[in-house]
Amino acid sequence: MNINLNVEVVEQDQSTTLVLTGEIDAYTAPILKESLLPLTKTANAEVIVDLEQVNYMDSTGLGVFISALKSAKEHDSKLKLIQLQERVHRLFKITSLDSIIDIDTTVRGGN
C-alpha cells in the first residue's frame, strides 16, 4: 500500500489554504479528511483547497469534499477548490458537484 498524499497548510490573514500533492483515494482520503474538516468548523472561516498537484482522485475523495462542504455550511464558513487538473475537475462535473461546491474554473493540464 503506497500512501501518496502530502498536505501542507498555509495560513493567511483571512483564509487557510490546504495545498495537496499526490493522489486522493481510499487510502489517502482519511488524511485529507483529518486535515480539512477541522478547518471548516471555525465560524466564518475561508478554506481554500489547492488541487494543482493532485493528479488522481476517486469517489472517496468526492465524499470528503461533500463532508467538508456540509461542515462549512453548518459553521458559516466557505470552502473553495482551486487549480484543479482536468481529470479531477471532470469528476466534479460528472457528479454535478461543481454546481454546489465553489470551484475556480481555471482548469490546469489538458488545456
Automatic annotation (TrEMBL):
Positive regulator of sigma-B activity. Non-phosphorylated RsbV binds to RsbW, preventing its association with sigma-B. When phosphorylated, releases RsbW, which is then free to complex with and inactivate sigma-B. Keywords: Phosphoprotein. The keyword Phosphoprotein applies. It comes from Amphibacillus marinus. It comes from the Bacteria. One of its GO terms (molecular function) is anti-sigma factor antagonist activity. Residues 5-111 form the STAS domain. PROSITE patterns: STAS. Belongs to the anti-sigma-factor antagonist family. InterPro entries: Anti-sigma_ant (IPR003658), STAS_dom (IPR002645), STAS_dom_sf (IPR036513). This is Anti-sigma factor antagonist. PANTHER family: ANTI-SIGMA FACTOR ANTAGONIST TM_1081-RELATED-RELATED (PTHR33495), ANTI-SIGMA-B FACTOR ANTAGONIST (PTHR33495:SF9). The keyword Phosphoprotein applies.
